[in-house]
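Go through this pair.

…
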Amino acid sequence: MSNRPLAAAGRSVPLLRAGLIAGIVLAAVAYPLAAVTGLGAKATAHAVEHKTNILRTALPAETSYLYAPDGTTILTMFYEEYRQYTKLSDMSPNIQQAIVAAEDNRFYQHRGVDPKGVARAFVANTRSSGVSQGASTLTMQYVRMALRDSAQTPQEVQEAIQQTSLRKVKEMRMALDIEKELTKDQILERYLNSAYFGHRAYGIYAAAQIFFSKTPATLTPVEAATLAGLVKSPSEYDPLSSDQKEATGRRNYVLDKMTQLGYLSPDAAAVAKSEPIRTRPTTPANDCAAIPDKYNTWGFACDYVKNWWSAQPAFGENRLERMDKLRRGGYRIVLSLDPKVQAAAETNVGAKDRVDSPFANGIVVAEPGTGRIKAMAVNRTYSLDVSENGPSSNPEADPKMKANYPNTVAPLLGGGTLPGYQAGSTFKMFPMLAALDAGMPLSTAFDSPYRYKSAVYDGWAPSNASAAMTGRQTMWSGFGKSVNTYFVQLEEKIGADRGVHLAEQLGLRWRTDVDKEQASPTKAKKWGAFTLGVSDATPLEMANAYAAIAADGRYCEAMPVNSITNRDGTPATYKTAGGIEREVAKPRCRQVVNADAARAATDAARCPTGDTPAKGTCGGWSTADSVRGTVGRPVAGKTGTTDSTRSAWFVGYTPELAAASFIADPDNPFNAVGDGQSQVPVNAVAQTLRDGLKGTPTRQFTPPSDAIVG
């Protein structure tokens, strides 16, 4: 049956008077200058025309979806107003007919403003000395909702909904103009995608889901009439309330209207009215804490997507605008995690075990050459509920402060505002890479005593972890054994500031006041301790920095997504400083050091893992010689521990993947993990690389040139 109602027959005498009144009102609508005077009138006319132009293309806010890497599994949604735009052809005729019957039974007769409705409301309101009846058509209501949805400021929102005669006149004028631009079906489609039905359901898709757990295409006459009845007053006619009396009465009113308009037969309406309202409510997921339990550990990656998004200029000029875009823009976001690698990471850090320990063991895996994040896991449950967490291990914290375990949503792996953890000797990579890039060969040798007093760094005298490291070392042996006194001398030769600058180029950021001061141009040259990893870093940063070395010196910004598409299915894009349009989710890479320098650094970095370098010798022993046997393929990396083993690290990589793991107490950096746990991150990385790459072809590292070997 057509959505258009049967024509009403006959005219009553009072309607003649109403028609006269309506004609006067329409004259004012057609020529709004009659309602205002002078320059204000001209400004009003221009404002109406401008807003009408906006409404021609305006679309309501729409929910954004985060998908698993398969592109079909929905992990969660982001919204302030739960809504998914639905075409009229995908809506049941029942809801189209019900909304016309409930809100504007002359929708198909008028041209945006209903003279009879205006007259009827005028008479009723005059008699009641107040506002007892409205005259808004579906088109006028759509105009109001579209102005609200497209508002950029609180003032514009207020102007769109305020109860004033001037607002009404503008609304009527725009409704008349819109009807010249859009068909009735287009207006009805937009209306049904904009209307508010209660329970944060904006638009018919959300309403059908929230109240009946179904799609708009399958709504029955009873369900459609129930939903259409909500638009007038969502709270008063709420069918999810314990007392459905008001909701049932309103539904029956809509069914009667549908019968009067010829949409339902009297018998069908009678049967429908005899039925109770059978709701089947659904609470749609919203934000990262709502990720299904099956994917709970992916919550940390979801959280990183949000933090990453908030820093992307493509989505707005500031964090507020960007997050508003996420919750209203209708984006389709596909996560970059590799399920196989993620599962390996989760297993090897105990991510799914209930951990009763203040020490967090986390891992991040990045893909060399793209920067895509393939795994993020930590031995914590991603949850906002910290009621069962014990007290913080930080003695200076408020006694009521909860610990970070077993539940937390803190960005322990990076990407947020937390400074991270001292990364120890993993930082030796930066001065070594800077030296190689400056032309110093791998064979560069220094006599490395147990303790070395630096004249460059004002008498600072660091020592080695063991007397067994004493002797003449090269980059291979110095890196493999992690000889502090070798790297202080190497740093003296190239300048500590060059190592600091290179770390910054590889994505590291300084977040504590101390680190910011030491990394500043005036202090960096004297930051000798930089090579020993006294600065805080996150596993996200370290995995991505080492991934650049695996990619022959090509650094790619960390990327937590495979794709982002707009609501119309086109890729989300941004313009570079040079005016070039690029996809937001495409890798953003640049060559930071020359390829030969990176290959040379990798050759030295094979020594700590028990692997055999292509060109040199490792000096007989190394700090993590079990890694090569565990991974079962060429692998490079570096261990790192801090004073008193307050934290322990390992960053390892193959040509395919780079992984960084740490163990530390996020609440109290002075709570030492102890030497006994220094092997934990080594095992986590080695086992994750092994399991994540199982079944894939073995790739070899490209050897450095003879020129850089020396």
Confidence is low (pLDDT under 50) at residues 7-47, 129-133. The longest helix spans residues 38-57. The two ends are 86 Å apart (CA to CA).
